[in-house]
Specification:
Two copies of one chain form a homodimer.
Chain A lengths: L8 H15 L6 H8 L3 H8 L2 H24 L4 H19 L4 H9 L4 H27 L9 H21 L3 H15 L2
Helix pairs in contact in A: 1-2, 1-4, 4-7, 5-7, 5-8, 5-9, 6-7, 7-8, 8-9
The structure holds a DNA duplex (30 and 30 nucleotides).
Chain lengths: 191, 191
DNA sequence: AGAGTTTTTGACTGATCCATCAACAACGGA
DNA sequence: TCCGTTGTTGATGGATCAGTCAAAAACTCT
């Protein structure tokens, strides 16, 4: 009933996500977005409304992809090993291109400037926290993980170190020392 | 032998630091800097050369103030308590205004865009790491802190969690749960 | 008082920012 | 085939960006 779109909206959001991830929200210009998505100005605004609107979509996509990745690791491995792999893969990816984590980047960039977007990013963090809590409770049921503290507290602790590692990855700390820290965290989790 | 300056260069750098801290590097306009320092365009450029130059000065100042703050805690308290207070005060400040830590903010904002500035910020982090290593070695000598791991590794671990907490503080996690995590980290450090 | 030096002042530059718009194009349904 | 709808295209808008400049001003030294 109308002219069909030339571009793939999904691919465009994906490209936008990558760009925001690399350059940050403020650091990404609409020109950058046009170049990366291959769209023209009018089309982009017609489809997504504004730079901010596109960023929201990108954040949602990031959260969804994160959830998918977290589930991919689940498999049938023991919980502690799941946590270990989660952190190792996250750290590796953050260190590889020095881009860190989009959610963490967004929170640090926008918390005191755009609380609404920051809250959106925060949901990515709480999602990870939930995954961790679940894994920890699993591991505790199996006697693999220490039970002297609430699972939520342990999860916060692990997540804290994890986010700190992402920052260190961006700061250029070498992969090996990041991995050592991960192993130390895992060791401290053991019952 | 020349016209005297009307403004206090130190106060100007201080004001600039606060502004960058709140709004980030890209997010701070020269107009913002003029408003906060009370200077006029030409004066600011005459004195500091560029926005980037002023930012470098602000980062140096941040590092110096950080060092001063870290030393202020030293006192004669036991090492573990020093670490505890260091983290608590850092977390409190980060949570109070949701600005986090200027060094962490800078690393996450600029690592993939301006490596030179990111490296400057990184030095703030390694300074803190050095302080931690020292405190841990002290505590170990007194039998207060566990000795089953290299002090540097423990320091990285503590620093990681600390930076993660700063992110969580920006994300709006409540003070109490941040404090609980600090206590958990301290407990895990004990011999 | 005059020369020399640095700062202040505010207007100005060109680039880039995000966003809008009208004209045109491509489709489905009547 | 013609109409309603939606997408594309590229020019254009005003705002803001970081940074420059020439002229006037405030000081010291001679």
């Amino acid at each position: 009933m109308a002219r069909p779109r030339k571009f793939d909206a999904d691919a465009a959001v994906e490209a936008a996500m990558e760009t925001f991830w690399t350059k940050g929200y403020t650091g990404t210009s609409t020109e950058d977005l046009l170049a990366e998505t291959g769209m023209l100005r009018g089309s982009l605004y017609n489809a997504f409304g504004s730079k901010r609107g596109l960023f929201e979509l990108a954040l949602h996509r990031y959260r969804d992809k994160g959830a998918a990745g977290q589930n991919a690791i689940q498999a049938d491995r023991p919980p502690l090993e799941r946590i270990r792999r989660l952190m190792l893969s996250g750290v590796d990816r953050a260190a590889a291109d020095r881009r860190g984590c989009l959610a963490v980047n967004t929170v640090t960039e926008l918390a005191s400037v755009d609380p609404e977007l920051a809250a959106l990013a925060r949901r990515c963090l709480t999602q990870l926290e939930a995954v961790l809590v679940e894994a920890i409770e699993d591991g505790r049921a199996q006697g693999e993980i220490r039970a002297d503290r609430p699972a939520r507290l342990l999860a916060r602790q692990v997540m804290g170190t994890f986010h700190g590692l992402l920052v260190q990855a961006k700061a250029g700390y070498d992969r090996q020392s990041l991995h050592e820290t991960v192993e130390a965290v895992v060791a401290d989790l053991r019952a």
